[in-house]
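Now for one specimen:
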Amino acid sequence: MLSATPRDPVASMISHVFLGVADFDRAYGFYQALTAELGLQLKFCDRDKPWAGWVSPSAARPLLVIAAPFDGGPSTPGNGQMLALLAPNRAAVRASYAAAIAHGGHCEGEPGLRPHYHADYYGAYFRDTEGNKLCVCCHAPE
């Protein structure tokens, strides 16, 4: 049975997102720049494992984690899978997209309105240094 304590339903639905990486240092530089533009803070980094995680300063979860796959196998991005990160405004979408591209990301769709999703959907799409597809989006009007 679920708790009767009121909570944010989205925050309570997701514990963490884990993205496998082969080149931890390169991926870490990419995500450190991207998450800084979104106001996320580094919660942990252990280069010996290697893994790192970021979180919103206002909540303990969900976490965004990058790491070498635990099974020791190669990291490969999934086709049709994408992580969408919420930006507080359109300027943050543009800044995070620019940071991603400047740190080795590859464009999959420049920042802009996507009215086919809804009238105020503003997003940018790119791949990280490992080939994982990401989106940064804002749902609020300008």
About this structure: Strands lie at 16-20, 41-46, 51-55, 63-67, 83-86, 106-113, 122-127, 133-138. The first helix runs from residue 9 to 13. Helices lie at 9-13, 24-37, 90-102. The CA atoms of residues 49 and 68 lie 8 Å apart.
